Amino acid sequence: MTERQVQMRLGIGALLAALFLGLYAIPAWVSSPSNVGNVVLSPLFWPYALAGLTGLTGFGLIFSGFRSDRDGAPLGEPDGEAGAAWVRLAAMAVIMGLTMLLLPRLGMVLTSMLVFVSTAFLVRTRHRITAVVCAVLVPLVLYAFFAHVAGVAIPQGDVLRLP
Amino acid sequence: MSFVDSIAAGLSLVGNIEAFLALFLGVAIGVIGGAIPGMSATMAVALTLPFTFAMQPITGILLLLGVYKGGIFGGAIPAILIKTPGTPASSATILDGYPMAEKGEAGRALGMALWASCTADVISNLSLILFAGWLASFALSFGPPEFFTLILFSLTIIAGVSGESLLRGALSALLGLLLATIGLDLVYGTNRFTFGDPNMMGGLNFIAVLIGLFAIPEILAMVWHPTAHVGKARRLGKNWVSFAEYRRSFKSIVRGSFIGVFLGSIPGIGAAPSAFLSYSEARRTSKNRENFGKGEIEGVAASEAGNNGVAGATLIPLLALGVPGDVITAIIIGAFMIHGLQPGPMMFILNVDIIYGLFIGLIVSSVFLFVIGSVAIRGFKYVADVPKRILIPAVLVLCIYGVFAVNNNIFDVGVMFVMGWVGFLMMRFHIPAAPFLIAFILGPLLEDNFRQSMLMSGSDPSILVRGPITWFFWAMTFVTIIAIVRAGVRAVRTGPAFGQKPEG
Amino acid sequence: MTFKTLGAICALSLGLAGAAMAEYPERPINMVIPYGAGGATDISARTIAEPLGAAVGKPLVMANVTGAGGATGSVAVQNANADGYTMLFARVGSHSVNPAMKATLPYTLEDFRFVTVYEINPFACVVSANSDLASMEDVLARAQAGELSFSSSGVGSGPHLAAAMVLDAFGLEDAANAATHIPQQGGGAAATAVLNGTADFLCTNSSALAGFVANGQMRALMVTTAEPVAGFDAPTAASLGHPELEQMVGWTGIAGPAGLPDDVAAKWAEWMEAAAADADFVEKMEARGSIIRVMAPEEANDFIQTQYETFRKLVDDLGMRIEG
């Protein structure tokens, strides 16, 4: 992406967000009592003000996008093999989603072990055996610390219940 | 009782091995606790509290103060090494500390963090001892209108941490302000963007947002491009900071310390805004301002001075007024009360020996912090040598544990993940994360104090200019905004330098 | 409530459920504190955890789950398994003021089963020492002139309701709106607001105010208990002719999810009796101005229900219910 593309895309995004907030999100999801004395005291005032400012910033971004070079240098380094990168990113999203599902069921220790292994292999670590050993040890050490030193009620699973 | 007598009385209280041992232990616990993301200084203090019940009052309180001070410094260690702030106060340290670690200069960054922290600690303690009474009465003249203007001024920091493009910084800040509106409304108690979920009613957990915004995008970037780091030197590098660098940053450190003292003595602000303000002031006035955000050692110094400067000063409202300045001092005040001590003006008359005992202990704590900090840095430095593709999953697991531990809530882990994606998108679009964070901290304060002012005055806006303090901050705000606008206009005139800077 | 009834309940439950649940507790019990570290609930909970842990015989794992005036932590327990391994430190704010005031609260009193209330906190009403308000009459007069403001630790918190209740009892018309409510983020900020003149008046836990009163920074005008409170040189509500305000007291109790088995509740009654007998515990709590009064499960439920109904009626009369 060039500077121009970044500014334009962000600007359009900000404008759309402001419209969405102002027209739908704030009326639907912010409740305000009927007996508000003054408009500046209403719970709606601040969100609307922010939505307005977001819109203004959106205009500013589009304007500065128009001003900048049409074919400026791209920001950031180019990413090779973008296809594989997207797949890995999607896999990471799945890992995170599964983590949320498994945490209450398997408990934090087992889930973390799985997270560790899958993430380490997702980033294609060169130290496979170390990764597996760490995947077992790190969650156990953290469990010992948080549960027994810090006294935190780390979620226990149905399968495995650590002392 | 004369001054000398008071000191003698204080000395007799702390002049035993037990008190110093407690202090030393406290600093050590604090540094370790602060260095574990999610543990944070607050939790370390809360966990230590029950152990102080059985101790002598002065020993117990010194233990807690040691944990507090150690914790604020300890937060810098993971901030620099793994881009995960150990406590919210150290988030400004990331801005330059982590780039330094990426360049293989983690040792220098950590060393500077320690030196700046200890210097600020000394300044903060001396301010407490010398100006407690004066600063306390000043703090009491801060009502909602004064707060509102102070926070409005603090929001101008956003310009200082926006990096390449001011507009993208503003967008980031607005996003932070919007997300901070989630939860129950302060004045009417109605729901805002909560979708009826009780987990959302309390608002998004600050630490979850913080870690999600800084640590998780780093993991996602790794997933996106697993070999980006190969070939970069990521070791502890040159092992220690040089005295010349310390001298060069000295002005920023002192300025940061006083910003910390000032903001610390006013209840309700806390260490994170102070670190950001100090950072942005250092950047504004530094010769090396171009290098800020890319691994400038002065940035680390300013940020760490800003947050440690708060640590001693928060005791000013605590001791002089009995008012806790933040969550940590609220816990410490509990410790006073358990021992039958009631902080406040009377304490300076009834328990003057304890007050002076605390003062002596505080001064010693700066020395302890230096010693323990040096050891801790040497201990933690091996983190920099761990292969990055082993480190990253470990950081992820650590974040899951830490974020859960903050509020014992699995929902917060989800918040962290979602914020991680937000942060990753922001990174892809070159939107800086720091303005988001500042806005997320200050936004609710701004809104609440504005509405409280309006309630006080019956919606009469003239209350916002009710006294010299408000005038002062209005003036500061206008001066800063004019300076920002002028800098922006100049940059646009001189061409593409403004808003164009490729970065990897 | 006597030892005999308690003993009978225990004996009965042990006899009935002996084999099935005799081993409760067989593992550590999670105790959720719905407020932050260092607050009144937290300190109270951690103080009783010591003798209570000894009585239980298994560790008690304390977990602060904060947010939304105690609602986040309460919901965590509401949704937990009713097996007695997840219990809640319930508080006046989360379990009688909030349900009375907030229509959108995700739980009701029916979702919980109380096993005890062990601590009562008198409420005190204070003004700043610099204030020219010297008595409740002065406060009322200023309120009637429409110039009184009061602080609280948030909308729907104990201090919010308490101020309205007190002003209403003293005869202020439309007490919810006639005086200006300036909510703050938390109890510490509410007291600071009175100190720095943001608000005139505050009614809250006496323990939160004792330090300021002792230091001469605040002046107490009234306490809500039947007996005067040590350290507060102020008349009781009854002596000012308003004994109905004695309902306005803080308390801390322990509750489980609604389906908590009888034998678990009985166990708790037994443990609480033992824990509250600990002299060290009583001394620590009384030093902070609390009154130790251990209620058995039935008594605790009645106590909370009565307080809730009083508050609910007041809230409806004054139109203070939060619907949104």
Automatic annotation (TrEMBL), chain A:
Q: Does the keyword Signal apply?
A: no
Q: Which UniProt keywords apply?
A: Membrane, Transmembrane, Transmembrane helix
Among InterPro entries, the record links this protein to: DUF1468
Residue ranges of the TM segments: 44-64, 85-103, 109-125, 132-154
Short name of any one Pfam family annotated for the protein: TctB
Annotated DUF1468 domain residues? 13-155
The entry's protein name is: Tripartite tricarboxylate transporter TctB family protein
UniProtKB/TrEMBL annotation, chain B:
Please give the superkingdom of this protein's source.
Bacteria
Q: What Pfam families does UniProt report for this protein, alphabetically? A: TctA (PF01970)
**Could you list the residue ranges that cross the membrane?**
20-49, 147-163, 169-188, 200-224, 258-279, 318-342, 354-377, 389-406, 418-442, 463-485
* Alphabetical list of InterPro entries matching this protein: DUF112_TM
* Keywords assigned by UniProt, alphabetized: Membrane, Transmembrane, Transmembrane helix
DUF112 domain sequence ranges: 21-437
Protein known as? Tripartite tricarboxylate transporter permease
Task: Write down the species.
Answer: Roseobacter sinensis
TrEMBL record, chain C:
The portions of this protein that span the membrane are none
Among CDD domains, the record links this protein to:
PBP2_Bug_TTT (cd07012)
What InterPro entries does this protein map onto?
Answer: BUG, Bug_dom1
The root-end lineage is: Bacteria, Pseudomonadati, Pseudomonadota, Alphaproteobacteria, Rhodobacterales
Protein name per its UniProtKB record: Tripartite tricarboxylate transporter substrate binding protein
Does the keyword field hold Cell membrane?
A: no
Q: Which domain of life is it from?
A: Bacteria
Pfam (any one): TctC
Q: Which UniProt keywords apply?
A: Signal
Instruction: Identify the SUPFAM superfamilies for this entry.
Output: Periplasmic binding protein-like II
